[in-house]
C-alpha cells in the first residue's frame, strides 16, 4: 500500500490549491496545487501498477512542495505553509525509505 500516501497527499494538494483559488483568486495557488497533486497521483498510479520511477516521482513532488512551502512557513509562521511543509517532509522521508528499500534488494 505504498501508493496510498501519494494519493492522499496529492488529493490534499489539489484541494488546497483549489480552495486557495476560491478564497483569494490566486491562480498560482491553483496551478501549484493541481500540478503537485498530479505529480503525486502519477507516482501513486505508477507504484500501484508496479512500474518504475513511482517512488522517484513522489520524491520529486515532495521536493517541489517543500521548496514552495518551507520558505513561506519560515517567513510567515502561518498554519497552511507549516502543514504543507509537514506533508512534504513526510513524503520525502516515506518515499526516500521506500526508494532505499527498492535499491537495497
From TrEMBL:
<keyword id="KW-0812">Transmembrane</keyword>
<feature type="transmembrane region" description="Helical">
    <location>
        <begin position="80"/>
        <end position="97"/>
    </location>
</feature>
<dbReference type="Pfam" id="PF03647">
    <property type="entry name" value="Tmemb_14"/>
</dbReference>
<dbReference type="InterPro" id="IPR044890">
    <property type="entry name" value="TMEM14_sf"/>
</dbReference>
<protein>
    <submittedName>
        <fullName>Transmembrane proteins 14C-domain-containing protein</fullName>
    </submittedName>
</protein>
<comment type="similarity">
    <text>Belongs to the TMEM14 family.</text>
</comment>
<keyword id="KW-0472">Membrane</keyword>
<feature type="transmembrane region" description="Helical">
    <location>
        <begin position="30"/>
        <end position="45"/>
    </location>
</feature>
<dbReference type="GO" id="GO:0016020">
    <property type="term" value="C:membrane"/>
</dbReference>
<keyword id="KW-1133">Transmembrane helix</keyword>
<dbReference type="InterPro" id="IPR005349">
    <property type="entry name" value="TMEM14"/>
</dbReference>
Amino acid at each position: 500500500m505504498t501508493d496510498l500516501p501519494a494519493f492522499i497527499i496529492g488529493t490534499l494538494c489539489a484541494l488546497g490549491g483549489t480552495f486557495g483559488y476560491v478564497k483569494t483568486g490566486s491562480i498560482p495557488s491553483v496551478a501549484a496545487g493541481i500540478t503537485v497533486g498530479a505529480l503525486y497521483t502519477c507516482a501513486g498510479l505508477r507504484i500501484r501498477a508496479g512500474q518504475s520511477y513511482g517512488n522517484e516521482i513522489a520524491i520529486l513532488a515532495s521536493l517541489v512542495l517543500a521548496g514552495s512551502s518551507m520558505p513561506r512557513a519560515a517567513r510567515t509562521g502561518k498554519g497552511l505553509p507549516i502543514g504543507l511543509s509537514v506533508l512534504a517532509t513526510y513524503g520525502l522521508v516515506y518515499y526516500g525509505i521506500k526508494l532505499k528499500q527498492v535499491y537495497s534488494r
